[in-house]
Amino acid sequence: MEEESSTGATAQQLPSNLLKYDVDPSEGWQIEENDHPIEEVRLTVNPTDNPNLPVLTFRTWLLGVSSCVLLSFTNTFFGYRTNQLGVGSVCIQIISLPIGRFLAASLPEKNIRLPFTKWSFSLNPGPFSIKEHCLISIFAGTGAGSPLGVAILTIIHAFYHRGINLMAAFLLVQTTQLLGYGLAGIFRKYLVDSPYMWWPGNLVQVSLFKALNQKEKRKKGTLTRLQFFLTVFIASFAYYAVPGFLFPAISTISVLCLVYKKSVTMQQIGSGLHGLGIASFGLDWSTVAGFLGSPFASPASAIINTMISFFLIIYVVLPLGYWTNTYKAKHFPLISANLFDSSGQIYNTTRIINANSFTLNIHEEERYGRMNLSLSFALVYALSFASLTASFTHVALHNGKDIWKMWQNTKEYGEEKVDDVHMRLMKRNYEPVPQWWFYLLLFLVIGLSIFTCEGFNGQLQLPWWGVLFAAGIALLFTLPIGVILATTNQGNGINVITEYIVGLILPGKPLANVAFKAYGTISMGSALYLLSDLNLGHYMKIPPKAMFISQLAGTIINSSVSFAAAWLLLNSITHICDPSKLPPGSPWTCPGYDVFYNASIIWGLVGPMRMFGKLGHYSALNIFFLVGIVLPIPFWFLSKAFPRYKWLKYIHIPLLLSGGSGVPPIHAVNYTMWGAVGIFFNYYIYRRHKNWWARHTYVMSAALDAGVAFMGVLIFFALQLNKNVGINWWGGVADDYCPLASCPTAPGVMAYLCDVCSIGCWGSFHGSTHLLCITIE
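Structure for Oligopeptide transporter 5, as requested:
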């Protein structure tokens, strides 16, 4: 029987350009006119579906749960080590395919009835399908990250050396991860159902699924997508042995540092890791995609906005502020995320803590002096303030009308004519997730969250209204940040604003601060993660209920396994996270959790009033909140007043403010390499060789990521598991040999290893561990 398209035409009567998808209507395949409004989606996602394919099967549960447990334990385990190793879901995405096909070939076709129910399932419902493969990858993706609740548990145990109730800790990890599911239900209509919310990053996943699963006839002189993927994957896998082990120095090559070995100024300008990164480059895919993600997943307009932002911030604002000594910038490194005292030394935070109450010792802080930031770190906070408020204005101006129209349409799929090809297929073949599922989960998790914070003798310091307030902040920011993420693949976090707000309301309570941050930041993050996966399921035609069940089950498993792994390590390794007490060479130094602890000191213990308020050095930075609100308005008016200048509508103020503000911790070389690769492929290749771009770009992105991931795992387990083994030669160090780039340049400031300075510097004291560097202006 022939399937009809939405226009009433049979599959045989469809235009010839639709027959290229090589599907058989007699097997249940449906083909629609590919009229999606976004060209990248039209070129990547097939306008087809087969509702008869198996989805949530025994194989899906077996491989999905196993991979989620494996990644949850592995990533939590490595998160405590000096050499952290993050294993992503792309590894499972590749490995699960041959295992799934093996199970399909070997498992018996036997029906199993669940005890005390009428439900049954087949051990082997037929060939392993692309939809099963997608759901397994979604399961694995939920285990790829360690929950923020684990970080709170860690600083309580390992840094504050306080106990916490076992059940309170478990509920904290679970509730912080689950709170965002209700938010996803509220906003899925706007961020998933709308075809203009196209989530560019998901196109990489779609391309990889197609390359691995679809049969394709190879034309003479060309490669199929799978052959192309395997070719690039093998090359990436083999090559990463060079920057990953044999020659790590090629990850960042800073030419100016190699030429000017005794000049602080030139190394500040040239260092790709600690400076401005001029003439610095890297021959390593992890340098390109390690911090900012694959550049192939971002549209050219977003890349260009981000790079303009980077150039303005790093090459104009930062040098101008540093060399005019704004905020005593020359007393500190040009780029650093550390805290400093007035003499330019690392701030001794333990000196200002009341040991018994874990509150701020105000008298000691006033005697010691206020905390200071490097100018680059101060800019990170200032631009974070501006980009958050700019997100509201930008979305209201550019997307307000569309959002309002969708808001008025309250039904699941709407009463209006739906023109999106993928929405038509989803609406025709599958039932949506009832809205009350999301609301019920939201109310249950909020109740558990309040119980977690108010119960157990108030160990977390956060009152019940703090939980509701944090959820309200997440509700406020999910839509504007989601719109930006869904259209540019670049999004802002709200950790700064949550820390700021609760720091003003509850100063001197570091645990309340991090708990509030977790409920506010992670609930929004998990909502956006779920929405992104719902969009991926939309493209892959996964039944929405199967998506919801898989994502919810994966999140609960990830939270449980991560909690168990963290609790085991914290209670079995003596002096974990304390390098001063650990044996020499011990890997359990917890560098990431140390940063999280310092944030609890800045925002929770000291508080924003003594940092960014009238009692701190950086109160002027609050003006950036107003700058963010106002700045998108004139550019929006210009785009409306001069519609013939189409480039005006691509000016994205939130990206211009936040795109280049990741330095630190992102390095300059990461930005320059990411931008160069992204513009070349997503602008030049996309315009000049669109067919090649559509066929290969996203597949190449996934292959490069997978090759680096697999070789990274192999190197770690084979050579670096017990100790950091490397080749002892000049290129065997992952450094750009710019030691002077982090030197302060103010006269009389003492800094470690800064015994050689720029021209005109004299007076180094070589007899101590701290060397005095005096610069003559």
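Residues 375-408 form the longest helix (34 residues).
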